[in-house]
Every structure is written in C-alpha cells, then in structure tokens.
Design a protein that fits this description.
By secondary structure, the protein is mostly helical. It is built from 5 helices and no strands. The protein starts with a helix and ends with a helix.
C-alpha cells in the first residue's frame, strides 16, 4: 500500500501545480465600478444627448410660441370688439340730435336769424414808420434799455 499512497501524493502534488499561483499585489489590478465605456462611444453618446436636448428645447419653444399666438389672437379679438363699442358710442355722442338736446338743456335756443361777422385786415407791422411812431418807439426803446441797465428805469417808473 505504500505504493498507492505515494502515487496519491504524486497526483495531489500535480493537481496542486495546476492551481493558479497568487499574483503578487503589485501586479494585481483591482477594478472598481461597472464595466468601462469604450472611449470611441463617448462622442456618439454626446451627439445623441445633444440631439435629444435640441429636440426637447425645440418642442418646448414651439409649445410656448403656440400659447403666445393664441393669447395674442384672443387679446386682438377682445380689442376689436372694444373698438367697435367705442366707435358706436362716439357716433352716438357726435349725433346732431344729441348735441341740440344737450344745448337746449343748458338753456341755449336756436337762433332766429343768421348773422355774419366780417373782419377787416389789420396791419401788425406797418409798412413804413411814421415820424410819430418812430419817436414813440425810440422812446419806448430807451425806456426798455434804461430798465435793463437800471439807470433811468427808476426815473421812468416814477413819472
């Protein structure tokens, strides 16, 4: 039986040699986390995310624009109806019957006869100064200059 025992030891020794040997710690590579994303896929993921964000942004902008357009259309319709009401009221207030009735309530009465007022043209600036107006205007000018200078203004006021 020693032969069998010896053979058993030899088989055990061979099976131990087949087992993996512990790798020293400096060669061991410890990985933490899940599987790594291959580097070439990062740009594709970024492009996909950009397209998704652009789509969501565009649909949100379209929704907001549609809401604003419907709000503005509603406000325009309301303003048009208000303008129509105001035009109707203005036409009622401008009617000659209403004005005549309001004038009669204030005590006015229609005229018995028509009368016209004629005007004659009045010259604001005379064509040529006459000697009388020239002396009057120079006296007025002297009084004005004296009032500004303070010299003869007191004498002119005292007269």
């Amino acid at each position: 039986m020693p032969f069998r025992r010896h053979r058993a030891e030899r088989v055990a020794a061979q099976s131990v040699d087949r087992l993996p040997v512990d790798v020293p710690a400096r060669y061991a590579r410890l990985r933490r986390g899940g599987p790594r994303t291959p580097l070439p896929l990062v740009p594709l993921i970024a492009v996909g995310a950009g397209i998704g964000i652009a789509y969501v942004s565009q649909s949100a902008h379209a929704t907001q624009s549609t809401y604003q357009a419907s709000t503005l259309a509603s406000a325009q319709q309301q303003l048009r109806s208000e303008a129509g009401q105001l035009n109707d009221e203005l036409a009622r207030l401008e009617s000659s019957e209403r004005i005549v009735n309001a004038a009669q309530q204030l005590g006015m009465r229609p005229a018995n006869r028509w009368s016209y007022v004629t005007s004659r043209p009045v010259e604001v600036i005379p064509a040529q100064p006459t000697p009388e107006t020239a002396s009057a205007s120079s006296g007025a000018l002297q009084q004005f200059v004296g009032a500004l200078s303070g010299g003869s203004g007191g004498a002119a006021r005292g007269r």
